[in-house]
Design goal:
The complex is a heterodimer of chains A (262) and B (338). Chain A has 262 residues and is of the alpha/beta class. Chain A has eight helices and twelve strands. The two termini of chain A are 35 Å apart. The C terminus of chain A is likely disordered. Chain B is built from 14 helices and two strands. The chains are: A alpha/beta (262), B mainly alpha (338).
Chain lengths: 262, 338
């Protein structure tokens, strides 16, 4: 694939669970200021690939490269240190805690030193308002419980948090799956804002409409393999849908995806 | 304006109102003996040991775990102090120090077992509850033939330790009240003002989410088990020095009373939400009801009924608050009808 140097790429990655190949020979890449959509039906291997990309899972075979250099990730912490952040659908934020406490969780701004360090709440409030504002979200009270936010706002909070912590690659795992139409649209807008800021975004979805709306590149997974890479100009939601479900013969590889389910 | 973001819905508000109500009730029913300074000293003294325990248990429960072994730790710690001094002839301070190390180790083991095995802390600490109680009784009886030991006042170092742990200061108020207030202030500061406090809330409210952003959930929980064990130790020390002796059965059921006080104080049984100040009010309510019933001349048997009712009411109230806190409120910019 030509174009700008990919921020992150995987080469011939395979993951094997016992005698089952969850992923085989997957090669793909992610570039800056672009939304790369990872699509596939349930069981296509999306979650496994996300686990590899975020350092949760070590691939059985293949290489992982960042800025063209091979790396070995042994935990999500390693991935975070390299600027790869994941936002998960359910695990993003803690409903009983306030917006600012969630935003800074694990990286609280402090003042003072030693055992007497305290959280700098004034700074926390200011930064939350600023960072959310940059994504087009107005926060009225950073002290309010996240549970009182809408689903879209919660996802956006998690995205803003990842960006604030210096994420260059943002992996969004089904950010719109549990949301209604307006909320999903809200999150997609936030994704576009993040792309404007130069972030490389991986959008994992099984919703072709959402993917087609913000995606620049599309990677279709099926039965643990890459069925093909497509550019924005090559696809429509209907074609994506057909590719995902396997009712469409792949023209990228010429391989028959097999009989369609159902 | 969001209802739950605002300051009126701090977890302890219900318990504070409850304490006021209970006080007013007994001030009317029991009259002057309850209302006056002596009355206050009576219920504050009664509430202090439970209060010390409850503050630590509140932190642990906010962190999403239970510790049923705290009552047994009180028993074991008391016996350890008495055996080392009266039986083995140590002076008071070394005995206090060694007992402290032992109690912290028990907390560490509780924490490690829970975190490493992933088993519910309810079961793990139920195990340590029986192990420690059995040890306290068994070892003491083996060595001395009894389960109660007295005579601490004859041991070297008693006076200095008594001043710190077992004396009274103004008007019959015991020094344990100062320990109670001090630990509550410290716990509140940690919980609300420090990063560790943020991690405690997160460890109980969403451990998986917390781990993903780098919170050392396991270490936080282990630290909290050590904290509850320390609180139990502190209670044992204040009691041993005040009574100049200990009983292997001391502290029985305190684990449940502490949970009751914490829950009355607005902390969720499921973790992630609560306060140390609430636990202070919870213990205060406990002390006021216990002494108030006696002072009003009602049969003390009714105390337990009252306590149970308070618990059920508190749980219902807390979970209602939790539901309100976790329900999305429709707002401009997109409320979905779901």
């Amino acid at each position: 694939m030509t174009g700008p140097t990919p921020v992150l790429s995987v080469r011939s990655v395979g993951v094997r669970f016992g005698s089952v190949d969850a992923l085989s020979d997957v090669s793909t890449s992610v570039t800056e200021a672009a939304v790369t959509c990872l699509l596939g039906d349930n069981g296509a291997g999306k979650s496994t690939l996300v686990a590899v990309l975020t350092g949760v899972l070590r691939p059985t075979t293949g290489r992982y490269l960042i800025d063209g250099a091979p790396v070995e990730l042994s935990s999500p912490r390693d991935a975070l240190a390299l600027g790869i952040a994941a936002v998960h659908q359910d695990l993003a934020v803690i409903p009983l805690m306030s917006v600012w406490r969630n935003f800074f969780l694990g990286a609280e701004p402090v003042r003072g030193r030693g055992p007497l360090r305290t959280i700098d709440r004034a700074r926390a409030y200011r930064v939350v308002r600023e960072e959310m504002g940059r994504l087009g979200i107005r926060v009225r009270d950073p002290g309010q419980a996240v549970g009182t936010l809408s689903g879209g706002e919660r996802q956006s909070l998690a995205i803003a948090r990842a960006l604030h912590r210096g994420a260059r690659v943002l992996i969004l795992d089904e950010p719109t799956a549990a949301l209604g139409v307006r909320q999903a649209s809200f999150v997609l807008q936030v994704i576009e804002e993040a792309r404007e800021r130069g972030v490389a975004i991986v959008l994992v979805s099984h919703n072709p409409d959402h993917a087609a709306r913000v995606g620049d590149r599309f990677v279709i997974l099926r039965q643990g393999r890459v069925l093909g890479h497509f550019d924005r100009s090559e696809i429509t939601p209907d074609r994506l849908r057909a590719l995902m479900s396997g009712q469409y013969e792949s023209w990228d590889t010429g391989r028959s995806p097999g009989q369609s389910p159902i | 304006m969001s209802l739950l973001g605002n300051r009126w819905t701090r977890p302890e508000v219900g318990a504070a109102a409850g304490a006021l109500l209970v006080w007013a009730f007994f001030a009317l029913v029991a009259g002057e003996p309850f209302r006056g300074g002596d009355g206050a000293a009576t219920y504050l003294n009664a509430a202090a040991p439970l209060g010390i325990l409850s503050v630590a248990v509140a932190l642990l429960m906010i962190g999403g775990e239970f510790d049923l072994s705290v009552g047994s730790i009180i028993g074991v710690a008391g016996m350890s102090i008495m055996l080392l001094t009266v039986h083995f002839g140590w002076s008071v301070w070394p005995a206090l120090l060694v007992t402290l190390v032992f109690c912290l180790a028990v907390g560490l083991v509780n924490g490690l077992l829970v975190v490493r095995t992933g088993l519910p802390s309810f079961i793990v600490t139920l195990g340590t509850l029986f192990i420690l109680r059995g040890l306290a009784i068994g070892v003491t009886r083996q060595l001395t033939g009894r389960t109660q030991i007295g005579g601490l006042d004859a041991v070297e170092g008693f006076e200095s330790a008594r001043v710190l742990f077992g004396s009274t200061f103004v008007g019959g108020l015991r020094v344990s009240i100062l320990w109670w207030v001090g630990s509550a202030a410290l716990a509140t500061w940690v919980l609300l003002r420090t990063p560790v406090g943020n991690w405690i809330f997160a460890s109980g409210g969403g451990p998986a989410a917390a781990r993903r952003v780098g919170v050392p959930v396991g270490r936080v929980k282990i630290g909290l088990f050590v904290t509850t064990a320390f609180a139990a130790y502190l209670v044992a020390v204040t009691q041993a020095l005040r009574f100049t002796g200990a009983d292997a059965l001391r502290g029985e059921l305190q684990e449940f009373r502490a949970i009751i006080a914490v829950v009355i104080g607005g902390t969720l049984l499921t973790g992630g939400y609560g306060s140390a100040v609430g636990a202070v009010f919870g213990a205060l309510i406990y002390g006021m009801v216990q002494q108030g019933i006696v002072l009003s001349g009602v049969d003390a048997d009714w105390f337990q009924v009252f306590l149970g009712v308070m618990l059920v009411v508190a749980v219902l109230f807390n979970h209602r608050v939790r539901d309100m806190a976790t329900r999305a409120t429709p707002r401009e910019g997109g409320g979905e009808p779901t």
